[in-house]
TrEMBL record:
<dbReference type="GO" id="GO:0005524">
    <property type="term" value="F:ATP binding"/>
</dbReference>
<keyword id="KW-0665">Pyrimidine biosynthesis</keyword>
<comment type="similarity">
    <text>Belongs to the adenylate kinase family. UMP-CMP kinase subfamily.</text>
</comment>
<feature type="binding site">
    <location>
        <position position="144"/>
    </location>
    <ligand>
        <name>a ribonucleoside 5'-phosphate</name>
    </ligand>
</feature>
<dbReference type="Pfam" id="PF00406">
    <property type="entry name" value="ADK"/>
</dbReference>
<feature type="binding site">
    <location>
        <position position="274"/>
    </location>
    <ligand>
        <name>ATP</name>
    </ligand>
</feature>
<feature type="binding site">
    <location>
        <begin position="165"/>
        <end position="167"/>
    </location>
    <ligand>
        <name>a ribonucleoside 5'-phosphate</name>
    </ligand>
</feature>
<dbReference type="GO" id="GO:0005634">
    <property type="term" value="C:nucleus"/>
</dbReference>
<keyword id="KW-0963">Cytoplasm</keyword>
<protein>
    <recommendedName>
        <fullName>UMP-CMP kinase</fullName>
        <ecNumber>2.7.4.14</ecNumber>
    </recommendedName>
</protein>
<feature type="binding site">
    <location>
        <position position="246"/>
    </location>
    <ligand>
        <name>a ribonucleoside 5'-phosphate</name>
    </ligand>
</feature>
<keyword id="KW-0808">Transferase</keyword>
<dbReference type="GO" id="GO:0006207">
    <property type="term" value="P:'de novo' pyrimidine nucleobase biosynthetic process"/>
</dbReference>
<feature type="binding site">
    <location>
        <position position="199"/>
    </location>
    <ligand>
        <name>CMP</name>
    </ligand>
</feature>
<dbReference type="InterPro" id="IPR027417">
    <property type="entry name" value="P-loop_NTPase"/>
</dbReference>
<feature type="binding site">
    <location>
        <position position="235"/>
    </location>
    <ligand>
        <name>a ribonucleoside 5'-phosphate</name>
    </ligand>
</feature>
<dbReference type="GO" id="GO:0016776">
    <property type="term" value="F:phosphotransferase activity, phosphate group as acceptor"/>
</dbReference>
Length: 291
């Protein structure tokens, strides 16, 4: 059981600050815990905590469990520290092993399609399917279908999409694996995944799949915002407040994935700010066999 504050100090990445309100039924007082600092890579999965005595447990998006011991709040004259510990990770190891063997037998060819929200990933994937015979798997569509199916993860996924937060990898990877296994095709466009380093590393280790290449749709926020506000598909996250959060998540978490694949020479960057037809000309060139 590591000390979470110590972990955070080692990590110089971005932090997000959370606010917690607790009702002390003995004193009938609300206690406010401000500025709970978590690395931006993780988020509380839901606002439901498990409480036992003076200890509050939260499940985080990377399946770590965060433990707050309210009775061990340390005060100094200027600052108040909260005693926070990381409790270890929830891992579905049996399932991981099973899926690895199944997918590694199939050995599908995979192209990741990445880019900011509204950069035109879905639009161009439809064109690629028609011209190059791939099957399109949109991570966002699979998650939305999971909500509709009434799955036990539905509420958690719904909350995270409404906030523009990235759903834990285990959930998304299972949906992708299932979709790949259920389809006879062996060529897949995976759109909107991996969206952070956790997504990327977990997908590689669970499935053993390395993408052929990564198509990156590069587009200005101004243009993406205009497109999302005009998309009109009734999506809960296509409102200005959530759009801004999604842009932040893209810059803070998703760009790192593109940089990783760029360092491996796998990124094909497309200027996605142009009209649909022009973007598709560039996409076609990216799929053409190298001469
Ligand atoms: N090149 C483009 N120029 C103008 N509008 C576009 C272009 N590509 C897509 N769109 C529109 O922008 C919106 C977002 O596109 P979409 O393909 O759904 O993006 P993403 O899958 O990256 O979120 C849609 O309404 C789509 O019709
Ligand atoms: N790999 C992924 C893909 C999407 N998502 C969630 O689904 C939302 C919508 O993703 P999307 O790919 O359908 O849409 P865009 O944001 O690209 O327009 C994201 O904001 C995330 O909340 C996720 O958690 N993990």
């Amino acid at each position: 059981m590591g000390n979470y504050r110590a972990d955070l100090l080692k990590d110089h990445a971005n932090y997000d600050y959370f606010y917690l309100e607790l009702f002390a039924s003995t004193t009938w007082e609300w206690r406010e815990l401000r500025n709970i600092r978590l690395s931006s890579y993780v988020y509380p999965v839901s606002d439901e905590a498990i409480i036992s005595g003076c200890v509050v447990y939260f499940l985080l998006s990377n399946y770590d469990i965060l433990r707050f011991d309210i009775s061990r709040q340390i005060s100094s004259s200027r600052q108040r520290f909260l005693h926070i510990e990381l409790m270890g990770t929830v891992v579905d190891s049996a399932n991981k092993e099973e899926s690895k063997s199944v997918l590694s037998e199939k050995k599908p060819k995979v192209v990741f399609v990445l880019g900011g929200p509204g950069s035109g990933k879905g639009t161009q994937c439809a064109n690629i399917v028609e011209h190059f015979g791939y099957t399109h798997l949109s991570a966002g569509d699979l998650l939305r279908a999971e909500i509709k199916s009434g799955s036990k993860n539905g509420t958690m996924i719904q909350n995270m999409i409404s906030e523009g937060i990235i759903v834990p990898s285990e959930v998304t990877i299972k949906l992708l694996e299932k979709a790949i296994m259920e389809n006879e095709n062996d060529k897949f466009l995976i759109d909107g995944f991996p969206r952070n380093e956790e997504n990327r590393a977990a997908f590689e280790s669970v499935t053993g799949i390395i993408p052929e290449f990564v198509l990156f749709f590069d587009c200005s926020e101004e243009e993406m915002e205009k497109r999302l506000l005009g998309r009109n598909q009734g999506r809960v996250d296509d409102n200005i407040e959530t759009i801004r959060k999604r842009f932040k998540v893209f810059v803070d978490s998703s760009l790192a994935v593109i940089e990783y694949y760029n360092s491996k020479g796998k990124v094909k960057k497309i200027d996605a700010g142009k009209p649909v037809g022009e973007v598709f000309e560039a996409v076609k060139a990216a799929f053409a066999p190298a001469k």
